[in-house]
Each structure stands twice: as C-alpha cells, then as structure tokens.
Design brief:
By secondary structure, the protein is an alpha/beta fold. The protein has two domains: 96 residues, no CATH class; 106 residues, 3-Layer(aba) Sandwich (Glutaredoxin), CATH 3.40.30. It contains nine helices and seven strands, in the order αββααααβαβαβαββα. Strand 6 and strand 7 form a beta hairpin. It is globular, with a radius of gyration of 18 Å. InterPro entries: Thioredoxin-like_sf (IPR036249).
C-alpha cells in the first residue's frame, strides 16, 4: 500500500490492525502499539550508526521524505507502526509516524528533553554500549531543578551541540531507584551522567547551569 492511500481507507486499516482503539466517540492509540513504540524507541536508540542508517533507508524507500529528515524517535515509531499493522508497508508506516508527531500523538513526555530517549534502568547498559559516548539525564516529577536542567539540555541540543554519535538518554528516577543507585551511584534528581563507553566519566547533581552543561559536554565530545 502506497503513502498516497485515501486517508479514510488508511484510518480503517490502522484501526482494524490495532493501531487505534475506539470507545464511543473517543479514539486512542492502542496499548499494544504504545508498548511496541516504547520497545522500538529503546531498540533504535541502541543501534550503531551503520545499522541505524540501513534501517532509516529501508523506511524512506518509496516515501516522500529524505533520510536526513527522519529522526530516531520518528523512525522507531514507524517501526512500531509496521510491527503493529501488518497490512501497512514501511513507507506508509513512516508517513503514519510523522502524522502522529504532527498531531501531538507521539507520546512525548514533557519531562524528557526533546531528542532524548526514555530508558528504563535495565536498558541503560545496552544504550551505553551502543554509543561511543552518552549523556544520561535522571529526573523526577515536581522538581524545579529538573525542569531547569531539561530546558537547558533541550536548548543545547537545539543549538546542535550534541553530534549524532553522542547518545542522549533520560531515566525516570523513582521507577529505577535500585538500578541507578547500584550501577551508577545515582541517588538524587536531577543527575546528569556524562558517559564514555559504558563508564561514567563525570556527573552533575542538581542544576549546574547551562554553561556548565555545555562545558562538560564539550569535554566529553573531545574525548570521543
């Protein structure tokens, strides 16, 4: 099925394949798709550059979008659409994923900096193994310093500070207390870990300010 399929027909296919659930007049993304989306976001975040490029090319083939315009989150969402909806091809899955983002249905957590991948505690190790270096932001809710750090990380990413080879991850502390404490010595939020390979090279606890985040990131990049 091509990306120019009639929208009404496409919606019916997506609904029948289980992407959406209807309850009266309410329409929501299915739990099955939401679960697949989180799983694929973590999986895509753990890919090396060559595997990521190959996967991206597989989904832009036949689509009206350039590979450079497809970020990792949208690509992972497209994989989840294709996994959930057997009748939808890869190019159409990418079209659907981009539509979900435009419509505000991409499941983004407002506490997670834009461009950062949400990770559970047991996903951190694989994430670090997949990147030469990484920045991991550990946060909690109702935390003014966390909000300030999140905003600074978003701003720095928007300026292009983080090159593609630097992994960007975010971990919700209260759900991952044991793993964070035992494996990464994290006991407070916000904490920002600067990791070289699978080792923590440095960290900030609390809100260090935008300048300090920039300086530490530049040191991390210089070592890659």
């Amino acid at each position: 099925m091509g990306t120019h399929t009639d929208p009404a027909s496409l919606y019916e296919r997506l609904r029948d394949d289980g992407l959406f659930e209807e309850s009266g007049e309410e329409v929501r993304l299915s739990d099955a798709f939401s679960t697949a989306r989180e799983r694929e976001r973590a999986a895509v975040a753990a890919l090396d550059e060559d595997a990521l490029a190959d996967l991206r090319e597989a989904y832009v083939d036949g689509a009206d979008v350039a590979a450079t315009d497809v970020d990792e989150r949208t690509l992972a969402d497209a994989v989840a659409v294709h996994e959930t909806c057997e009748s939808v091809d890869r190019a159409t899955s990418l079209h659907v994923a981009r539509s979900l983002t435009r419509d505000g249905l991409d499941g983004s957590d407002p506490h997670v900096p834009d461009g950062f991948v949400s990770l559970s505690g047991d996903e951190i190790g694989r994430f670090l193994d997949a990147h030469a270096a990484a920045v991991v932001y550990c946060w909690r809710e109702e935390c003014d310093p966390c909000d300030a750090v999140r905003a600074d990380l978003e701003s720095l990413r928007g300026e292009g500070l983080f090159p593609d080879e630097i992994g960007l991850g975010a971990v919700y502390g209260p759900d991952n207390v044991d793993e964070l404490r035992e494996s990464y010595d994290v006991g407070a939020a916000p904490t920002v870990l600067f990791c070289a390979g699978d080792a923590v090279a440095s960290r900030f606890v609390g809100n260090p300010g935008r300048g300090a985040l920039r300086a530490e990131t530049e040191l991390l990049i210089d070592g890659v």
